[in-house]
Amino acid sequence: MAHDHHHKHPHTHADSPSSTDIDWAEMAGHLESQAELFAPLYENALGWLGKEVTEPGLIVDLGSGPGVVSCLFAEVFPGARVLAVDGSEPLLDRARARAERQGVGDRFDVLAGELPGVLDELDYPADLIWAGHSLHHLGDQRAALTAFAERLAPGGTLAILEGGLPSRFLPRAIGIGRPGLQARLDAVQEEWFERMRTELPGTVAEAEDWPALLTSAGLKYTRSRSFLIDLPAPASDRARAYATEIFSRLRDTLGEGVDADDRTTLDRLLDPADPASLHHRPDLFVLGARTVHTAVRPA
């Protein structure tokens, strides 16, 4: 699985295809570009973690995807070794290549395998484990958190990126279609997400009280903090391309979940020849929040 996400999604739910059988390798470019766009948010989150964690020797990124955040960890913690773990070997190839390009390849390793079973292949306990939008792709999240916690060294920290707020790209009223398009798309995405969770092997319904779940895994000193991505209008070319990709994925994959009027609006937003499209709008922005929850294994 990969970051939202991102995704591991570095992803919001809007970054996920409608099929719950996700081909993460096929999404590699999208995952990479999203994580790069969201780099300021991740840098702030890792800066906060840097104040919480004392000089970790080994950092494990569970569900690393193409390694954008893994490499940020290597930069923020220059004394640490970083292990990127993912079920997709093509994504790990990208992660390894990124680490080499950024000059941290000597402290960077990868491990291919599905969570949580791949944790049995870790040779050493970790001082910091990061799971960015990967936990919600596992059926039994409580059991997974317990497995994560067992791989921490005494005094080690588990940090999970889950929750926050859906990203916004446009004002409520955009001059075409009915106002409130994104709120309606959010509702369809929530239904998709619930289907995805229901179809996972061994799925267990849980209240998404992440601090309580971390405590149930035997960890202490829970903390939560949210971080903002705020790229105001007018959007950069990279932000515009990201928004266009998100809306294109929504149009192509949500199908009948979106009513006919909203599908027409999506078509117009994605038509480069339409002056009201995402390609030309001066009011396009990127605004979102992601929440990090941490806890510590007792020494």
Short description:
The chain is an alpha/beta fold and 299 residues long. It has 9 helices and 7 strands; from the N terminus they run ααβαβαββαβααβααβ.
Count of DSSP helices? 9
* Mean pLDDT reading: 90
CATH top-level class of one domain: Alpha Beta
Proportion of beta-strand residues: 15-25%
Number of strands: 7
* Net shape: globular
Task: Give the assembly state of these chains.
Answer: single chain
N to C succession of SSEs: HHEHEHEEHEHHEHHE
Kindly report the spatial arrangement of strands forming the biggest sheet: 3-2-1-4-5-7-6
Unreliably modeled segments: 1-20
**Biggest β-sheet strands, sense, barrel:** 7 strands, mixed
Q: CATH architecture of one domain, please?
A: 3-Layer(aba) Sandwich
Sequence-ordered SSE layout with sheet pairings:
Blueprint: H1 28-37, H2 39-52, E1 58-62, H3 68-76, E2 81-86, H4 89-101, E3 108-112, E4 126-132, H5 141-150, E5 152-168, H6 181-199, H7 210-216, E6 220-231, H8 237-254, H9 260-269, E7 286-296
Parallel strand pairs: 1-2, 1-4, 2-3, 4-5
Antiparallel strand pairs: 5-7, 6-7
What do you see in this structure?
The N terminus is likely disordered. The protein has nine helices and seven strands; from the N terminus they run H-H-E-H-E-H-E-E-H-E-H-H-E-H-H-E. The chain is globular. Strand 4, helix 5 and strand 5 form a beta-alpha-beta unit. It has a domain of 196 residues: Vaccinia Virus protein VP39 (Rossmann fold), CATH 3.40.50. Helix 2 packs across helix 3. 37% of the residues lie in helices and 21% in strands. It is an alpha/beta fold. A seven-stranded mixed β-sheet has the order 3-2-1-4-5-7-6, with helices on both faces.
